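Regression report. Comparing outputs from two consecutive submissions.

Submission 1:
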Amino acid sequence: MVLVVHGSPQWASGSSDYLVPPANPQKFGDFMGFLAARYAGRVQSWEIWNEPDEVAFWHGSTPGPAAYAPLLTASYGPIKAADPGAQVVAGPLTGNNFKFVEGLYALGAGNSFDAVGVHTDTACLVKGPSQFYFEPDGRIGRFSFLGFREVHAVMAAHGDGGKPITMSELGWSATTTRCARGGNAGLKDAGVGETNQARYLEQAYHCLAAYPYMTTGIWFNERDVGAADTELNRYGLIRWDATKRPSWDSLQTISIYGDQMTSSCGDLTPPTIKILEPTAVTRFDRGLYVAASASDSGSKLSSVHFYLNGKKFIGFAARNDQTVSFTLKDTSAVPYGVSTLKVRAVDKAGNTAIKELAITRVDSRELPRQTTRISLHLSGSQSLKTVRGRLTVPGTELMPTGKLMVRWQRYSRGRWVNRYARSKIGAAPFSYVQKISTPGRWRVLARYDGSGPFSRAQAVESLRVR
């Protein structure tokens, strides 16, 4: 049995509002000791106040760890003295309030609880257990079902990874009305309907089963608490008219046969990243070509972003295993020497991966003469041709500076005549698609006139258009 004790009489708090805590926390602690002695062996878990982290249940002062910690510490000793085997729970908290837990540890209250309690049936919750968002600091959101992972991470960081987390309220309203409370009042649905309520119940207990430290999951609540179709009235497994919802059958099945689901609970795995160019031995000066791909097996890839020395210079929406590339044409502001290239990939669930590479900018004016080479490859249909190529410095990982010119030429009256032309950055691979409708002998001429220490180069590929 789990009992939550909250509220205080006027003689203890000085207020007619029972949600104002007592002026002397020890009075509350003594009362908890009395209750623990009276119900020793019959109550397994004591929750100290209900959702003390929010103004809905904590009045008279600003709710927070500093206000709550004295009440918790005053209760722990008397309860354990009366019933050593009883569990003392910090909270339960509103959502997975890991920052509140951090505050308790900072105040030295880590030795005053055996478990942390959370309530995930927050106002107008409509997202399922596997759906989540991230806080600005990258942690799973407090009001996500899976946010209990962050509560546990805080506990583990303070040596309490072995302590359990009790989810003494979880649930989804079956109402089909609009939200009437909280920050989303009037902006979203208030519930998920009966079918999704049952489905989310199954998913929730499946999720909890994957984490050994999640020892308690109590559905809120058994029966609707009113006839009107409102959010708070429609959390029940049993309707107001005493008929059973599908969620009743779902919970009954779990209680008899256990968790039958095999799918993963939430995509919490970040993407994997491959930096294709540059490499760790690449040297560049004026112009830097970058290319990468990423993939995610869970929720699929969303975007890929590039940074140089901490400053973002380009980002792309991207699919799994799609190569995205970019040429940073002006690198004059990049200092000579070692710089850090960072690639950040984000999947559709919001998971982020980062891969970094040290690259080197050199002053090309100080380099000896470098021999360059152009490679060309032609492909395409009879009338739509593509030439792909690359200017390189064989035997090195240098990225040449300057530009090269790519020309489509047709042989006419004994000479090659330029028909189409385009300049390309020397540091990057290039492609040039051209529609050719005139029959005859054609060729692609790529010419690099050299830049600094990089020598001239030229390449030709011929074709016949019929």
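Submission 2:
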Amino acid sequence: MSNYLIFLMIIHIIGLNTMTKIHARKQTDKFLSRLQQVECPDTTFFADRFPIVMKRGNGMWIRDVDNNRYLDFTACFAVLALGHRPKTSLTAIRKQAASLLHGMGDVHPTLAKIKLLELLAEISPFENAKSLLGQSGGDAIESAMKTAMLATGRKRFLSFSGGYHGLQFAPLVLNDREDFTRGFESWISGKTVTLPFPYFKSDLSSNQNHLTKDYLWTEHKLEQPEIVLQQMEDELKKKEFAALIMEPFQGRGGKRGFSADFVKSCKELCKKYGTLLVFDEIYTGFGRTGKMFAYEHYNVIPDLLCVGKAMGGGLPISACVGEILDVWGKSKGEARQTQTFLGNPLACAVAYETIKEIQNKLPLFQKELVQIDFIFQKFISFMQKNGLSDRFPFEIRGKGFMRGVWFYTQKEGFAVPMMEILLELGYIVLPEGPRADVLSLTPPLIAKSEHFEKILNALQSELKKM
């Protein structure tokens, strides 16, 4: 967020001075002072009244160390699909902890690991699926990159601008944001080609008079889909690329997605030129977009599927899944992609039960989304009726429980002060997009339409004051 520091500094001018609710921060400020003494300064961003120190969570709610209560519209980076401290996770933790806490991932397997791998194979789109487990999303992407190199004999990669695939050295080469790559340019150079992101009109928006081709490119570096596909084919023709790695809907990129035809064209071009297609579903997987996996919206099956976040029910675990993992060959005693905590039995047990619970409750989540879509329609009508859509033109991006309000005519960083304003009002949200002009709404899948109505009403109220 360093690029948006100036916007956090003016929060009092545009927001906090207009609000009636100011949270106590006595204990919070004490703990944050202690944190600054012991943590790498690049890790946590500090502003006047940001961040909070979380103490306890339950369902949709979080309390901080000053006992202030917040409605969580982040699911803590889309991890807590079933909410904070769900019974599913707690029960699985207690049961597994009573027998085995840690294992030897690539030596002596545990029953929990075997059951999870079987379940991943069962729910995947592949007939003969195998998986490589990891701890973080970046681990899964690194596994996919290595697998693609082994399968194709190539060493370069294609990705889309705005994509976020992790910050370990392998996935870092897929990132084009200077916030993350600064200081590591020499490592990244030559390993990847970043394609511009194509623009597709949202079904939910205010007036879109501003969104001309010139405006989209000049202000947002969004290109026309046919141009992007031509650039993609021009690169693929070189036959240098092991894989195209893409999020079906970008998370950190601002909750933006593609058309089904575009994704099908990506698949066809990759197949034509011998490049693998990898879907990064670390953010979008396990019900986040209203379907079990986001590839279902496009009816396109990738060569490799990377999953994580919600899969672990709050514990760190990820996986790279596909039919081509046999390219690694059989182990000769030393695994080439492993780690100490690979297939940790506690994480595997919780992941297994979490996936089963999401499967069982997905129809209920989908039913609630019908009402949530209606709330977004009400929000658009209110914004238009009160003239706010003219002052703050916007699009509603994303699918399901992965939404973003894109204020496309506002200055870079617009969503950052909105984040802190809403925090003071009792809502935890995040700014997203390359320009931080998208207000991200990604609550647990247990969120109800009234939760969305509550936060959208608060947003409307604050916009009216500006």
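Expected: both submissions complete independently.
Actual: both completed, but the second showed a warning that disappeared on reload.
Relevant detail on submission 2: Residues 1-20 have pLDDT under 50 and may be disordered.
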